[in-house]
Write a structure and sequence with these properties.
single chain, about 240 residues, alpha/beta, Rossmann fold, Arc Repressor Mutant, subunit A, five-stranded parallel sheet, 13 strands, about 40% helix, globular, binds calcium ion
Length: about 240
């Protein structure tokens, strides 16, 4: 039997308060998740580039830089799954975090069990995305409307050959859409979860961000269409090679 990939996942925790950092690590450890903490944004960015973690938990209030800036730089240089931890009960920060590519957020103070449940849910989502493709065969590269996407490397190229930066969450979403073009995909299918909260805006935020990156007019989208009450539809023909 192979080891449980969630159990062997590497988690980095960016938290400047030692007491909170200890609590988070202990909670994750109780459920078999190995985590390491770093106290500053700069340190997290350095570490993430070196060790390619599976998941980063990022506190927004930090001594050296804004947590949202850390998230932005992380997605540019070392994309990985991200959960935001915030004491700020500020909706705009949370929405901005999701727009910047975070997968989830948790408002402090939180129940350790909820933290662990959400972390595991994110890790499962990525693991399932990865395990959908046969392991021994390269997933190949997708071509649509002159664009090229390499899901293995999160590489998106415009028809002019320019590279577009994608967060890990955006790349996973695009991959899902490209695997099933011209079919309506529900929010649950796109998030890879059952029972998605109808008020959860994260998928809509991610879709609108992806549209902008694909030069799809958000007011009148032609590539990723909204099917009201049902989900989203990727309209282009896709070839894999
Ligand atoms: Ca803090």
């Amino acid at each position: 039997m192979s080891p449980n990939p969630i159990m062997s996942a590497q988690v980095l925790v960016l938290e400047d308060e030692p007491e909170v950092a200890r609590l988070i690590c202990a909670s994750l450890a109780d459920y078999g998740l190995q985590a390491e903490t770093v106290p500053t944004g700069r340190e997290l960015l350095k570490r993430a580039q070196r060790s390619a973690p599976d998941l980063c938990l990022i506190d927004l209030g930090l001594p050296d830089m804004d947590g949202l800036q850390v998230l932005k730089e992380l997605q540019e240089h070392a994309p990985c799954a991200v959960m935001i931890l915030t004491g700020r009960n500020d909706v705009s920060d949370r929405v901005l975090g999701l727009e910047l590519g975070a997968d989830d957020y948790l408002v402090k103070p939180f129940e350790p069990r909820e933290l662990v449940a959400r972390a595991r849910s994110i890790l499962r989502r990525y693991q399932r995305g990865a395990s959908d493709a046969p392991v021994t065969v390269s997933p190949g590269v997708a071509h649509f409307n002159g664009w090229t996407f390499d899901p293995g490397r999160h590489h998106l190229l415009t028809p002019a050959g320019e590279e577009v930066g994608l967060s890990a969450a955006e790349a996973a979403l695009l991959h899902t859409l490209l695997r099933r073009p011209n079919r309506i995909l529900t929010r649950e299918q796109l998030l890879g979860e059952r029972d998605v909260d109808p008020f959860d805006r994260s998928i809509d935020v991610r879709i609108s961000r992806l549209r902008r990156k694909l030069d799809d007019d958000p007011q009148n989208p032609r590539l990723i269409k909204t099917v009201y009450g049902a989900g989203y539809l990727f309209t282009a023909g896709v070839t894999w090679g």
